[in-house]
Amino acid sequence: MSSAFLLRFKQPSVLPGFGITLGYTLLYLGLIVLLPLGALVAKASSIGLTGILFAAADPRVSAALWTSFGVSLIAAGVASLFGLLVAWVLTRYDFPGRKIVDAMVDLPFALPTAVAGIALAALYAPNGWVGAFLEPLGIRVAYTPLGIFVALVFIGLPFAVRTVQPLIAEIERELEEASATLGASRWRTVRSVLLPPLLPGLLTGFALAFARAVGEYGSVIFIAGNLPYVSEIAPLLIVIKLSEYDYTGATVIATIMLAISFATLLLINLIQAWSRRRFGYV
């Protein structure tokens, strides 16, 4: 019976080592992912569900969570849109310096987050190169939630570009030509021919950009201003709790962020699975 049970999970393969690789996978997930998260939840649960809900209802914690998740959602959406445009240009057009631009897309991956935050703060400060022009117009970027948005778009754009770029390269130009030959407008061609195979990649890029944005710390604290109830993010509030030796309070906020992040990513994955079934693309 046990062998029949294992055969349900074992897929035929020309490569040996199913048992070892499965064991390593479970061990890795257990030690590196599940055990730390379990310890986090166990620490937070020491004050009970009522205490967790009371901590979540704290005005400062609620404001920080709204700032972190709200701005992250908007930034991930904008990064996905502009990432699609950047990926399309880099894939479909040949122009001088294209390889340089393509390499620059990955800079947020390699650049230390603190360096990115300092650079963005200096650029968008009221006396910065860009901020000096925006200040007379009444647009203040640095030390506001708008500054957080700029930083999160900066670090999320590479995820959106790299997840969509291979899919664009696989779309045959003959499909666009056939659509135009049949009399479809440009918008109809984009909506009916191009977007369906790109939608799973767009959702994947959105999920990755959102996940990165929610936990971002280094590039945000320098441009956010960190004003409570205005531009304070939840990761910073966790650091503040730790510096005050309030370990339980820090783990409670972290557990709340974990629950919201898990629910959001689960919803995104369900939408992605639906889009694959709906449009028939993997």
TrEMBL record:
<feature type="transmembrane region" description="Helical">
    <location>
        <begin position="103"/>
        <end position="125"/>
    </location>
</feature>
<dbReference type="InterPro" id="IPR035906">
    <property type="entry name" value="MetI-like_sf"/>
</dbReference>
<keyword id="KW-0813">Transport</keyword>
<comment type="function">
    <text>Part of the ABC transporter complex (TC 3.A.1.6.1) involved in sulfate/thiosulfate import.</text>
</comment>
<dbReference type="InterPro" id="IPR011865">
    <property type="entry name" value="CysT_permease"/>
</dbReference>
<comment type="similarity">
    <text>Belongs to the binding-protein-dependent transport system permease family. CysTW subfamily.</text>
</comment>
<keyword id="KW-0812">Transmembrane</keyword>
<feature type="transmembrane region" description="Helical">
    <location>
        <begin position="15"/>
        <end position="35"/>
    </location>
</feature>
<dbReference type="GO" id="GO:0015419">
    <property type="term" value="F:ABC-type sulfate transporter activity"/>
</dbReference>
<dbReference type="GO" id="GO:0005886">
    <property type="term" value="C:plasma membrane"/>
</dbReference>
<keyword id="KW-0764">Sulfate transport</keyword>
<protein>
    <recommendedName>
        <fullName>Sulfate transport system permease protein CysT</fullName>
    </recommendedName>
</protein>
<feature type="transmembrane region" description="Helical">
    <location>
        <begin position="220"/>
        <end position="240"/>
    </location>
</feature>
<feature type="transmembrane region" description="Helical">
    <location>
        <begin position="63"/>
        <end position="91"/>
    </location>
</feature>
<comment type="subunit">
    <text>The complex is composed of two ATP-binding proteins (CysA), two transmembrane proteins (CysT and CysW) and a solute-binding protein (CysP).</text>
</comment>
<keyword id="KW-1133">Transmembrane helix</keyword>
<feature type="domain" description="ABC transmembrane type-1">
    <location>
        <begin position="65"/>
        <end position="268"/>
    </location>
</feature>
<comment type="function">
    <text>Part of the ABC transporter complex CysAWTP (TC 3.A.1.6.1) involved in sulfate/thiosulfate import. Probably responsible for the translocation of the substrate across the membrane.</text>
</comment>
<keyword id="KW-0472">Membrane</keyword>
<feature type="transmembrane region" description="Helical">
    <location>
        <begin position="137"/>
        <end position="161"/>
    </location>
</feature>
<feature type="transmembrane region" description="Helical">
    <location>
        <begin position="193"/>
        <end position="214"/>
    </location>
</feature>
<dbReference type="InterPro" id="IPR000515">
    <property type="entry name" value="MetI-like"/>
</dbReference>
<dbReference type="Pfam" id="PF00528">
    <property type="entry name" value="BPD_transp_1"/>
</dbReference>
<dbReference type="InterPro" id="IPR005667">
    <property type="entry name" value="Sulph_transpt2"/>
</dbReference>
<feature type="transmembrane region" description="Helical">
    <location>
        <begin position="252"/>
        <end position="274"/>
    </location>
</feature>
